[in-house]
Amino acid sequence: MASQPMTSSIQPTDVYGGDEVSAIILDPGYSSVRAGFAGEDTPKSFYTSCYGVSGDRTIFSDEDVHNPLVPDMEIRNPMSKDGVVEDWDAATQLFEYAITSRLTKFKQSDPMTNGVNDTKDMDVDIEAADEEEKPLEEHPLLMTETAWNSSKNRERAIEIAMENWGCPAFWLARNSVMAAFAAGRATALVIDVGASTTSTMCIHDGLILKKSIQKSPVAGNWVSSQVRSLFSTQDPKIDIVPHYMISSKTPVDAGAPAQATFQNFKHNITDSFRALEEERVLSEFKESVVQVYQGPGRLNSTHPSGVPNIENVRAMPGRVFEFPDGLNQMWGADRMTVVEGMWDERAALPIPSEPALTKAQTIPEMIRASVQGVDMDLRAALLQNIVVTGGTTLLQGFTDRLYNEMQAMWPGARIKIQAAGLTTERRFGSWVGGSILGSLGTFHQMWISKKEYEEFGVSVVDKRCK
Amino acid sequence: MTSHDVRDMLDLPQEGAPRPAKKQKLAGPRPVLKGLAREVQNLGGDNPIAIVPEVSVFKKRRFMSRKPASKWELVPFKNTARSDQTLILRHWRRKEASPPPTVIDENEGESSEAAEKPTPVMDDSTFAKFNVQINIPDYTDDEYNSRLASPGWSRDETDYLMKVISDFDVRWPLIWDRYEYEPPQPRPVEGDAAVNTGAIIVPPKARTMEDLKLRYYSIAATIMALRKPPIKMNSAEFNLHEVMQNFDAKQEHDRKKFAEAAFKRTREEAREEESLLLELKRILARSDKLNEDRRELYARLEAPPSTGNIGIFSTSGGLQQLLQQLMTADKSKKQRKLTLGGETMSPAVGASGQTQQNFDRRESSVRESISGPSGGNNKKGNTQNAADRRQLTEEEERIYGVSRHERLGTSGPTFRHDKITKPLVSKSAVQQAKIGNILGELEIAGRLIMPTAEVGEAYEGLLQSINVLLDARKVADKLAGEIATAKAHRAEKKRLARAESTNPTANGDGEIKREGSAVASVRAGSVQRKRSASVMSAISDKSTKRQKK
Ligand SMILES: Nc1ncnc2c1ncn2[C@@H]1O[C@H](COP(=O)(O)OP(=O)(O)OP(=O)(O)O)[C@@H](O)[C@H]1O
Ligand SMILES: [Mg+2]
Matching CDD domains, A to Z (chain A) (predicted)? Predict the structure, then answer.
């Protein structure tokens, strides 16, 4: 950001109200943890939320978590199915790793005063060394959380930031609000489709309207399980073979059985590791094949011309996907049926061991409930400021379908969807919003300072971060 | 020799070379090469070889200015908008020219730095001033009990409401959203605790936003009036007081219900409403136009009668005077024209003739300016304009119907359509009907669809013929009638003569006279062919009148 030379005495503060105090933004999610400095446009540090446990070793780095050679590694996720922190001990280490590995590893002190130039101060430095154990002493920390985070969890967050990391100041922001800020809106209807949860809620003047919060599990992981369900019902059934298992493969024709030689491992590969690696294959499939039927109407409804929509879809060209073992196949209308359940609960494929979707869990119904939950006078403005964020909204055709569904729901209203065009902005929406907020000059008065924390205790977070 | 060979000779790489060359070309104008370099470049032909020219403009200015890079430093600052003043954040600021007083601190440890520095020089955040607070009315117990108590509201809930309002800075959607009042739990009385919990705990009443607003506005208005009697308020305060006092929760509630109904309408309803709105807009636009017309009409009707006496212009002497006035008024213009068009002006022409000609000229120049390129170049007076006019070819002149005249006719320039309608309009209704009948018989529309010059001429000719035909027919009819009467007379006379011999002179005289007039009218009819339509119609009118007499 600062790479461009400032030509004159005009300082950026005059232009956009920014006044950076090298705050760090931490945006944890079920699938990944994003961390970086306020004022930058993408997080410098991006790690999967999963960590490995092998014996008594805890493994965080991306390379090691996906490394099949680590013996008997169990993969765990400190986040719950709701996208909130469940295992604080692991989460603390994971977040700390995310921050220190890329952002604050080397303490940035002035070479004039850090003792390198002057041997006299050695004792002082050593004395200070105790304090320096804490990674965030010089950086205020802005952390995001979901709208349904519990009080207990919030208090735990400030406690760790203050006690473990030694932050001079702390703030807890709602990730949907941050996503709205990233889109330049203080009043918005935010639709966040992440990995573990999909949520819709209304934001007014930078604060969540609680009565409008809706959440459901119809998100990235759910799509993955739909894809799994699709694979298992194929004939012949498709087994997902992750990359690490393949030692070599020969190309085969579409639909022909795979011909690959497998890697042999001397140690045991845990189920959780395999699931993690399978998820990567599924992600590829989601990104390159899966597509949302964009409307009008639903996949299972009939077009006004009398032709069922599914027939039109079948007439479209399909997409080929090659699995790591070389198995490849053309995907036709099925690439749309796997995500149709997001919009139409009756179209969802059954997932064993999970209850069937309810109507209220589909995205259109969540939006309807959210809008119903706010004052009439706000609704028109909200429908013109719909902010779409989260990785799963990158599914092809998602926003078109969303628009069509909403248009059908409120034909008389003007609907305007604000969806960032850049992939990173969509995936890191809440981080980017935090980055903006954290670099604003007017935000300095909001921070909860260490002093305030010491004075009021952990409950200060509930009082201040509304 | 191909570029391949040249590459070989110059030891240039065979592949990948053209790319950078192309980019270079895109980036800016190709540098002008001289001497051998140009020859070599030309060998490449269409596929120029990569000789990357040196770019000498790269950041020249920066190297020219010998100013040292500006220094930045991490400056601590505080923010007076914070309730807690201990938070000291640091940001990067350009270093001032004078050495900051922190030089001494440099050699000391962090602890002493922190202790000494903040005292005198600490900046305040420039954003502290943006922190504004909203005033929420507060009240004492007495005030509450005497003025503010309201049946539906407990003191506790009112206090809670005021707190929520100040927490959310009177942003009503948020207040209503976060309003979660829980009445204080009544302390369970010993013994009947179990009964109490079942009976007394009522779910908190759901308050609508209107309830909350009504309560708050009435409190705020009451407190406002208490602090400052309405008579003493300035107008802004008084208006605010009025608005708060007169807040109508029910009306507000109904409005929202309507809005919600409108929000939930279906596509058909929306479409219908849209079309109705469009219709309304059209009606309004039309009525606007109607009103406009009506107003204009009224304005005309009510226009004050001209105060000047027009009587003096009714005589020819008066008109002459008027002309003289007009002439002197644009003397200057005419002066120019007179000199330019002097040759056409003969001094022998009398005053009236002169003015007539001048009017013609003026009219023609006006017409010239409005008729554009088609009618320009035959006017002598405006030769300077004619030069910049587009010259029309003969073909075009024919298409546009341009005709040239040495001089204009007595009536001056006319519109072509006048020529067509005049002969019709000047006729009596009976005549017009007759002409219409004949045109109908010929299957020609009364109005010309494509009135080009030729068509106009043909039409004119046709009308003339029709006129002649009509006149001839009329005369023929009349003559036939007269012959019939004459024959009858003769028969009568013969009968009378045969019966009895009387004095025949008087009757014979009258008959000769009548025949003479009929011959004259026939002659008039034959002459018409040579005259213009208007003259003709005048004469034929006269003749019919005479006949009627
Ligand atoms: N291009 C893409 N197409 C489809 N899905 C994608 C794409 N990119 C990412 N995803 C999916 O998006 C999800 C990650 O989204 P995101 O990073 O917003 O979630 P998160 O914030 O970590 O999770 P949560 O919000 O549930 O806590 C993953 O399930 C991933 O598979
Ligand atoms: Mg998320």
Answer: ASKHA_NBD_Arp4_ACTL6-like (cd13395)
